[in-house]
């Protein structure tokens, strides 16, 4: 993540600059294109698996 806009759904979910998204709704993603493909289904709740520093964290976005 290069930037998180204040007040955005990403910010509300807890995403931070330099987080690395590695999974979306239990699907492993290796690129933005793969992430967009998973999100194209427009799920009501998005479960993100991210890496922040040395930790793997799960966040939920609505």
TrEMBL record:
Q: Which GO terms describe its biological process?
A: proteolysis
Asked if the record carries the keyword Protease, the reply is: yes
Protein's UniProt keywords contain Hydrolase: yes
Residue ranges of every copy of the PDZ domain listed in the record: 1-54
Classification via SUPFAM superfamilies: PDZ domain-like
The record's annotation in Pfam families points to:
PDZ
| Keyword annotations | Hydrolase, Protease
Molecular function GO terms recorded? peptidase activity
The record ties this protein, via InterPro entries, to: PDZ, PDZ_sf
Q: What is the recorded name of this protein? A: Protease degQ protein
